[in-house]
Amino acid sequence: MRYTIILRTRSLYRPREQLGFPRTFSFKKRLIYNLSMEIIGGIGVLIIALAIWIKKEGVQDILFIIGGAFLLAYSVYLNNIIFIVLQCIFIISSFLEIVSKKK
């Protein structure tokens, strides 16, 4: 039995193979890959939520960068351009805040 995974992108349904996902991956490998990317996205959200509650601003900014990097990886997985750009802006602004505090 052949399985095809469909991804919704810009209101079009296209097979994963058309989005650069290797055709040679078995169903089990694709399932593990998809699940691991979902977990990475969840970890990113948890890290950013944790950073909000931390009072030390230096540690908070570092956690924002780490959580933003996890969410950037997840947004690349989703192939969502708006989310990718926003995550890049979030990471850069957190990094610039760290740099401005050291001066």
Describe what you observe in this structure:
- The protein starts with 5 loop residues before the first strand and ends with a helix.
- The chain has helices spanning about 25-55, 55-80, 80-100; strands at about 5-10, 10-15.
- The relative contact order is 0.11.
- It has a two-stranded antiparallel ribbon.
- The longest helix is centred in the middle third of the chain and has 27 residues, at about 25-55.
- It has one domain.
- Strand 1 and strand 2 (about 10-15) form a beta hairpin.
- It is elongated and about 50 Å long.
- It is built from three helices and two strands.
- Helix 1 (about 25-55) packs antiparallel against helix 2 (about 55-80) and helix 2 (about 55-80) packs antiparallel against helix 3 (about 80-100).
- The chain is mainly alpha-helical.
How many domain modules?
1
Q: Work out the strand percent.
A: 5-15%
Overall pLDDT = 82
Total beta strands: 2
Short account of what is shown:
The protein is mainly alpha-helical. 69% of the residues lie in helices and 8% in strands. α1 packs antiparallel against α2 and α2 runs antiparallel to α3.
